[in-house]
Amino acid sequence: LTVAAAAPEGEAAAAAGAPAPTGETANLSGIWRSEYAYYSTGRAAEFTDVHYVVVRQQDSNLSIESLPQLSGSVVTMHLTVDGLTATGTWEERTSPTGYYKGAVYRGAIQLLLSPSGRRMSGRWIGFGKNFQINNGDWELNLESRSLSQRSRAVYEAKL
Hints:
There is one protein chain. By secondary structure, the chain is mostly beta strands. The chain is built from 3 helices and 8 strands, in the order ααββββββββα. The chain has helices at about 1-5, 10-15, 150-155; strands spanning about 30-40, 45-60, 60-65, 75-80, 85-95, 105-115, 120-125, 135-145. It has an 8-stranded antiparallel β-barrel with strand order 1-2-3-4-5-6-7-8. The protein is globular. About 20% of the residues are buried.
């Protein structure tokens, strides 16, 4: 910490493992593990759902789409990054054979980006089946910077 405190701002960030501040958003493109929590009123229990997602970045905009998985559930997000905050919308088309029978849910989300650029965590909000407002934690963790077909195939096979 002494070295980081004595170094100029960019060098301190690099010493701490964070991207140096350049006035631009760090490139967040890659394959991420997405996990969110929700409460199911019909089952009176808390659940989590996991997807591997492809994050594509253009300037400060993130386009996120889940990789195919056996259940058929698909998650998408459109986020805008401003500093360490990512804000936007999410949508999930649930599994056609699962409990929610292919229902579509959508809402808003805000995430904080870790200084290392390898983790985003925050909260989602959206309407449930009976128009009640639901919310919960949502976290994304970087798995791979590669978006190659080979990398995608590895993560498609995990779920």
